[in-house]
Amino acid sequence: MVSAMEIYMLLPKTNCKKCGVPTCMAFAVGLLGREKKLEECTPLFEEKKYEAKLAKLKEIVAPLESATETGLIIHPEKCFGCGNCVIACPVNVAAEPTRCGAGLGPEGDRVILRVEDGVVVANNLEECKRFGPNRVLCNACTATCPSKAIEFV
Amino acid sequence: MTEFDYKTCTGCSLLCEDILFPDEDSISHAKNLCRKGLAHYQALFVERTGPLIEGKEASIDQAIEKGAEILRNASAPVIYGWSNCTLEAQMAGLALAEKIGAFVDDPSSHCEGRLMEMLLSGRIPSCTLDDVRHFADTAIFWGSDPSSTQPRHLSRFSYFPRGSKRQKSYEEERTCIVVDVRESSTAKLCPTTTYRVPPGEDLQFLEALLAVLDGKIPKFGDKKRMIELGSIIKKTEYGVIFPGPGMLISLQDKMDRFEDLLRRLNEITTFKVLPVTEQYNSRGFGQLLFERTGRTKAVKFSPSGEAAAGPTLVEAAKEADAILVLGADPLLDLPAGLARAFAAAPLIVIDPRRSLTADLAQVVIPAAISGLEGGGTALRTDGVKISFEPLMKSEQPTDEQILTRIMEAI
Q1: A118 vs B38: CB contact, 8 Å cut-off?
Q2: Which of A89, B237, B297, B386 has the fewest CB atoms within 10 Å, i.e. is most exposed?
């Protein structure tokens, strides 16, 4: 996954404040948190010398757009449906303590992660600890994935 | 009773019983099914075999009759496979083997077979997977990678779930240790407690571990890390070792030392052993054969039905004048020399799907896929009996029905 530093290296680094934040580094962080859009950095589009950097930037921020509201990205081609994340997710366990808590697959619809057709799918993202402004940076699902099929931006 | 109609997956020997199919008679949107199980279910619709005699289409009655005829005239028949059949089919198959005086063996015999014999005869302690979930705090995966063999092993039993004595589970109470030649998927979950062993040096690792437990300095690997492993084991309340083919093939005939290690471990704390088997009912065949003959592999029945320790599979296959293969693909799985011996003998294959062995066989008898089209019982990798109902209705006869009909025809 791309880091804020990698994005910063491709920005103009002039701290012109045209995007509304004080520094280019802050803009890079905003971009990564999906609070800012690339188009808000006007010099990048207006000045010809940034053309190559802009093309590279567009390429590296493209995966961020496929992320869900909580920043969760699932790569179904890497997932083999082991269900570690389903059992590890604290919200899943709270929703179905007798099943997810005991290692069995969930049966209801209140869980966030569940395995369907052999790969993990995410639902009810508003229940996730990473949702909303008061989010907690829980990483139970990504830390327990043996194939790095799920990650957060 | 719950309102949900749970199905059992026969994709691996974990026999997960919590599979849900929202649509009837279709496998789409299957819930809780891992990718391995999904592939197993998807195979229902591809490459199915029909009854064949020497490559030509025939009716199923003709195929069974021809198969019975070959077996009737054989003086040294071999029945190979077994581990992808239900317990009922294995019982019918063993009755057939007794009747015709066949040599029986299964693919696990060069691998988990030896361990299974030690385990069933009570020389090494074992437990069930539910015990692992409730009590175990240390799981050692030695030469096994459950992430690929039994994908849901860690999430259902050994590492992530909460149990009655292990409420804090993997976060605080459980330790997962991997001993392997490569960085497997399971090893990625516990990088700090992964021990890489060069191929074939598991015995040195075992000796080093024994030395550490006796308070000596180990002569193998990173001394500091080996001592760390020793202290993890000494703090363990209930440990389980999950040996896989990596360790069993590496130790070869030095399994006595493994027994010594377990004796030593059990002096310190409680340690159990559970093999990680691949095919869904390989434990079932081992246990069934053990109960009947006192051995778990390579048994030769005399024409009068008495069992004795047979020759090796190589010798039996070279001398065989008829080989009945059920639920396996030996030409694909076995080493080239052995596969050649198999291919040279007249082959009768009972298999739901097309396989390399079925392509070369003289007689192919199609069967229902157990767990999908046929019900039955099977033993999970820890020996717990699990019965399952078929997912969908099918015209195909089950393995058990075919074997019974062959026996009647002989």
Answers
A1: yes
A2: B237
Residues of B in contact with A138 (CB under 8 A): none
**Facing residues of B387 across strands?**
B377
Distance CA B345, CA B71 (A): 12
CA-to-CA distance for A49 and B344, rounded, in angstroms? 72
pLDDT band at B156 (very low <50, low <70, confident <90, very high): very high
Domains in chain B (CATH in brackets) are 5-42 (no CATH), 49-108+280-409 (3.40.50.740), 113-273 (3.40.228.10)
Question: Residues B55-70: pLDDT tens digits?
Answer: 889 999 999 999 999 9
CB atoms within 10 A of CB B330: 25
Q: pLDDT for A68-86, tens place per residue? A: 777 888 899 999 999 999 9
Q: Which of B5, B16, B35, B167 to mutate to test the interface with A (most CBs of A within 10 A)?
A: B35
Q: Is A96 on the interface with B (CB under 8 A)?
A: no
ipTM of the complex: 0.85
Residue reference for tokens 């015990």: B131
B322 in helix, strand or coil?
Answer: strand
pTM, two decimal places? 0.88
Which of B161, B171, B116 shows the shortest CA–CA distance to B135?
B161
